[in-house]
Amino acid sequence: MQQQSAQLRWEHHTQRPLFGLALAFAVAYAVPIVRPDADRDVVELCTVVEWVVWAAFALDYGVRLALAPHRRAFIRTHWLDLGAVLLPMFQPMRLLRLVSTLLLVGQRARMASQIRLTTYVVGAVVGLLMFGSLAVLSVERDSPHGNIRTLGDAVWWSFTTMTTVGYGDHAPTTGLGRMLAVGLMLSGIALLGVVTANIAAWFIARFEKDDVEERRQTEAIRELTEEVRALRGELAELKGTLVER
Asked: In whole angstroms, what is the distance from residue 123 CA to residue 57 CA?
């Protein structure tokens, strides 16, 4: 019980610092893509920041595993965290560090009870749009047949892809770019489903609340009607008694 409490305390105290590191990762990931002519020292600094952020999330997973009362159960229930931690070790690609960091941030966000579903969905949409745009720009900008050359083109492509509109004016031409497109489309469909389900649940809860209120009012009216009938009967009896006297 003490170990479990220690794990919960660790997760509570590290929630905000890890999100701050995630924001630092976002800046470090974006700078070399938005500014391809940046100094080499700046690019190397961004790379170091990316690895430091990933290492922080890996350390967080290790501490949570050490504090877990049942480590095998923790690994089984947090397999996505483990995969995200191990992913960048197989191939030192910036895109893998991006995917792993997004997965880890998403896992910690779902664990935070104070974050509402709507806030999480909005944050996920903004994050996917931003990182999807940067990722596709990084792999398509130097493609001989690519037509996504600027950040504006990348953002427009990400928006149309996530909403499954797909105008076709911009499209990835590389294999990695198409893999990003598939991931972005699936993510857009999933988020749209979450939003739709959330709105439907709100309407259902609203209708149920209205039904409960309507039933309560109907019951109150019925009880009031019975009381009026009882009063009328008592008045009739009282009137009959007075007439006899």
From this structure: 19
The per-residue pLDDT for range 23-57, each reduced to its tens digit, is: 888 888 888 888 878 888 888 998 898 888 888 88
The encoded tokens of residue 185 equal: 């489309």
DSSP 39-102: -HHHHHHHHHHHHHHHHHHHHHHHHHHHH-SSHHHHHHHTHHHHHHHHHHHHS--HHHHHHHHH
Cα 97 off chain centre by: 19
- Contact predicate 194/117, CB 8 Å: yes
pTM score over 0.70: no
Token pair recorded at residue 180: 């990003």
Which residue in 91, 177, 183, 103 sits closest to 137, CA to CA?
177
First to last CA, the chain: 80
Cα(132)–Cα(140) distance, integer angstroms: 12
DSSP 172: -
Residues in the chain: 245
Element (DSSP H or E) covering residue 36: none
How far is it, in rounded angstroms, from Cα 161 to Cα 159? 5
